[in-house]
């Protein structure tokens, strides 16, 4: 359903959702997804993130490594 139709028929859409329907809302001619609307939508599981570049380099990063003094920040130009 296009977003304009969704807005124009909002009351009907609410009733459809109450009856168990799931509505996919898109916008524009390209059909960009706005979202899914429904009663029993399961939240998607968060994606697993990998360490990336440092994973294969054998580097470890500690919180202490990420704390700099004001002087060090000035040397970095920050």
User: Which range does the strand content fall in?
Assistant: 5-15%
Task: Tell me the distance between the termini.
Answer: 48 Å
Enumerate the spans where pLDDT stays under 50 for 5 or more consecutive residues.
Answer: none
- Principal-axes geometry comes out as elongated
Descriptive report:
There is one protein chain. The protein is built from three helices and two strands. With 78 residues, it is an alpha+beta fold. The mean pLDDT is 84.
Essential attributes:
single chain, 78 residues, alpha+beta, two-stranded antiparallel sheet, 3 helices
In a few lines, what is going on in this structure?
The chain has 3 helices and 2 strands; from the N terminus they run ααββα. With 78 residues, it is of the alpha+beta class.
SSE layout and pairings?
Layout (H helix, E strand, L loop, with lengths): L2 H6 L1 H9 L4 E5 L4 E6 L32 H7 L2
Antiparallel strand pairs: 1-2
């Amino acid at each position: 359903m296009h977003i304009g139709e969704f807005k124009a028929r909002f009351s009907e859409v609410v009733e459809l959702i109450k009856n168990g329907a799931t509505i996919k809302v898109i916008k524009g001619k390209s059909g960009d997804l706005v979202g899914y609307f429904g009663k029993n939508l399961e939240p998607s599981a968060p994606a697993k993130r990998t360490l990336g570049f440092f994973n294969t380099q054998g580097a470890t990063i500690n919180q202490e490594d990420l704390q700099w003094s004001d002087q060090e920040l000035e040397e970095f130009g920050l």
